[in-house]
Amino acid sequence: MSDELFEYETKEEVTREEAAATLRELADTIARHNEVSFTANNKVVRIDIPDRVRLKVEMERGQADGKSELEVKLSWRE
């Protein structure tokens, strides 16, 4: 693995169904291939997902600005 830090973030407004499809595709990729790949700046970065990960699900409803949030996070040590 490279010591170079790689960060990837995307934000877009989509339908609920499109968001669910993206989550399903990501989950299926992790389950079938034990990795995910991202392309940024014409560079493909592959991230291997180990057998055991920490799963965090966080929900916030009715914040002061009226915004609600659902966050799903996988983390692990290499």
UniProtKB/TrEMBL annotation:
Domain Amphi-Trp: 2-78
NCBIfam families hit by this protein: amphi-Trp
Name of protein: Amphi-Trp domain-containing protein
Alphabetical list of InterPro entries matching this protein: Amphi-Trp_dom
A family per Pfam: Amphi-Trp
Origin species: Gordonia alkaliphila
